[in-house]
Write a structure and sequence with these properties.
Its EC number is 4.2.1.-. Pfam families: D-Glu_cyclase. Strands 1, 2, 3, 4, 5, 6, 11 and 12 form an 8-stranded antiparallel sheet that branches. Strands 7-8-10-9 form a 4-stranded antiparallel sheet, covered by helices on one side. By secondary structure, the chain is α+β, with helices and mostly antiparallel strands. The protein has 7 helices and 12 strands.
């Protein structure tokens, strides 16, 4: 079903959502609930999705290999497959809250499922998502502003180019979280232990050095208020391949709507390193 983005609802910051089993959450999304997924299903990894025709799959794989910070690959489904080890009994076509369709390098709208646009030649890539390490930040007493404010995370296209691969090229996309100045080193240390879900930040402070002119005008997600004494901290973002799809004029591609992730059955700790 096609969904106007303005109809998206926010249910973040809800302890009941945080305690849900991933399978239950995916069933809620299949039933039509649309919400950003930050703060959902604490303890379980979330994933970005990029889905392309088989003819483009090698380009995406090579792009991810050359740009591992924004594109850490958690899993790849064979052409036409809709489920796999990351989501037992799930379906990548229906189990994220919201999807984006791309046609000829243009965003062609959002939808609540991909059933009527699915093709048997489509290859699905699941990429790590920084929502996975947010629980670790919170457990360390570092606030996550977009969860506290009940909005989607702020994401920005930067002026930093990615490493081109095959027919794909485009800008690095980053997510931003304000962090108390006294806790930035802790945030770097904690998130660096999760390299499979973007790991340590790519930049701290000075958004203009990334080519970001206005933090109040994100390219994806919602503007996040930066409390006094906090500094903006930027992590590589799994929306980066969707930005490359746009920049490269890919004829047809699908992805999650930014911030509306696929919640997997994989525990966060499996992506944590000592």
């Amino acid at each position: 079903m096609v969904m106007n983005a303005t109809e998206t609802m926010s249910t973040q910051g809800n302890p009941e959502r945080a305690a849900l089993d991933p399978g239950v959450a995916r069933e809620m999304f299949r039933s039509g609930l649309i919400t950003p997924t930050s703060g959902w299903c604490d303890g379980f990894a979330q994933a970005n999705l990029i889905v392309v025709p088989r003819d483009w799959a090698f380009d995406v794989l090579l792009f991810a290999q050359r740009n591992p910070k924004p594109c850490p690959v958690l899993g790849v489904l064979e052409a036409g497959e809709v489920t796999g080890p990351l989501l037992r009994g799930g379906d990548v076509r229906t189990d994220a809250p919201l999807y984006t369709v791309y046609e000829n390098g243009e965003a062609a709208g959002t939808r609540t499922d991909l059933l009527d646009v699915w093709r048997e030649d489509l290859v699905t890539f699941a990429l790590g998502c920084s929502f996975t390490f947010e629980a670790a930040l919170q457990e360390a007493g570092i606030p996550v502003a977009h969860i506290d404010q009940g909005v989607n995370v702020a994401m920005y296209r930067t002026a930093v180019p990615t490493e081109p691969a095959g027919r794909l090229s485009g800008p690095l996309v980053v997510s931003m979280r304000p962090v108390p100045a006294s806790r930035v080193a802790d945030a770097v240390r904690i998130t660096s232990r999760y390299p499979a879900v973007h790991g340590a930040p790519v930049h701290v402070g000075a958004p203009e050095e990334l080519g970001i002119d206005d933090l109040a005008a994100p390219d994806y997600g919602d503007a996040v208020e930066i409390p006094a004494g906090h500094v903006p901290v930027f992590w590589a973002c799994g929306v980066t391949p969707q930005a490359a799809v746009l920049a490269s004029g890919v004829p047809f591609a699908l992805g999650h709507a930014p911030g509306h992730m696929l919640i997997t059955d994989v525990p966060n700790w499996q992506y944590q390193v000592p």
